[in-house]
Amino acid sequence: QKGRPIAAPVRRPRPRKRERAPTSAPASIHSWRTDSIPGRLAVTFPVVPATARRRRTMVVTVAATGSDTAEPLHSTTFASRYVRDQLPRYRMPSGSIPKEAAYQIISDELMLDGNPRLNLASFVTTWMEPECGKLMMDSVNKNYVDMDEYPVTTELQNRCVNMIAHLFNAPIGEDETAIGVSTVGSSEAIMLAGLAFKRKWANKMKEQGKPCDKPNIVTGANVQVCWEKFARYFEVELKEVKLTEGYYVMDPKKAVEMVDENTICVAAILGSTLTGEYEDVKLLNDLLVAKNKETGWDVPIHVDAASGGFIAPFLQPELEWDFRLPLVKSINVSGHKYGLVYPGVGWVIWRSKADLPDELIFHINYLGTDQPTFTLNFSKGASQIIAQYYQLIRLGFEGYK
Ligand SMILES: Cc1ncc(COP(=O)(O)O)c(C=O)c1O
């Protein structure tokens, strides 16, 4: 008995000849037919001419899952009825489909999209290292706003805000932290910065007993659409400096001429959407300092550094465009452009706490402790913030340069 199995060998009954499924379609089969009986399995039958049918019976092996979504074992996702039958386009289908079919249908349709790696439009990052991709996927189910639940993610956001504020030369004391927030992109960042300017200006006008129902903002006509959105959504007149032949950015002299007592800020662009050109923020600052002195106003500057914010600090560190200029009170930058993160992250940094009116900050305590928030939306994913932190520490100043 040595070396022989103790248990009796299992006898497997040989399938009876007529039950064996064919490995390939018999020549007599002309086409295939699917019968779907409500509440039962869908079975695909070969349609066999009557003469052949008399000779053999065809039995199709069926996966017994106990559900009515079972398909023949040999059928590929493409052969399943779920992929063959068209789904309604604009109404929710009444029934469910297997996950493989859902995946296949969607990924096939997405093949008609362009290839992101070949897309240079909107300057958005289309490749990140797999290690960062893993971090992003690992946190794709974290709601950024649940700060009590994800305190480390909040801490990473705060580190990013501080690193970017230092990059922009914010005047932050040794024991101070920077004032700023992550956003979904530069557009949200600009809405928040614009709201802060509008509220600060209105408060000042009220204090002086002056009307505050006609705010305006001065920009170049080359501004990105998000400035037009800000103006329309938040009822601020957009005063655009016209471009001239051969000069496609805002002329600071003309901008300052357009400023009046109702101007909540002048917005300058570091990296025009049309050409990538920097506007002369230093000249704008100097002219505006003089105008403010002359009139007694204190019109500030916002820099839309959606693209340039992650370029100038590395390539033109001597260029003064940021918080080194006294009238620059806030700056936005797109993390998903030259911040080198996949789409869905931007940043807005304020010069100091005094530049962000308190009444715009909401305090929530849904999860126990006080959480100040200043964003347009509530829930959002945490992955992009984590990815931004990854890039900042992975590349460092040297890497971005
Ligand atoms: C100068 C400028 N500002 C703002 C934006 C809007 O940025 P986002 O797509 O991050 O909202 C862009 C986008 O191209 C831009 O070029």
UniProtKB/TrEMBL annotation:
A molecular-function term among this protein's GO annotations: glutamate decarboxylase activity
Domain of life: Eukaryota
GO BP annotations listed: L-glutamate catabolic process
The protein's Enzyme Commission number: 4.1.1.15
Keyword Lyase applies: yes
Annotated keywords: Decarboxylase, Lyase, Pyridoxal phosphate
Catalytic activity field: L-glutamate + H(+) = 4-aminobutanoate + CO2
Enzyme class: lyase
Pfam families: Pyridoxal_deC
Cofactor(s) the record lists: pyridoxal 5'-phosphate
Biased amino acid composition, Low complexity: 1-10
Region entry Disordered, spans: 1-29
Cross-referenced InterPro entries: Glutamate_decarboxylase (IPR010107), PyrdxlP-dep_de-COase (IPR002129), PyrdxlP-dep_Trfase (IPR015424), PyrdxlP-dep_Trfase_major (IPR015421)
GO terms for cellular component: cytosol
The protein, known as: Glutamate decarboxylase
Source organism phylogeny: Eukaryota, Viridiplantae, Streptophyta, Embryophyta, Tracheophyta
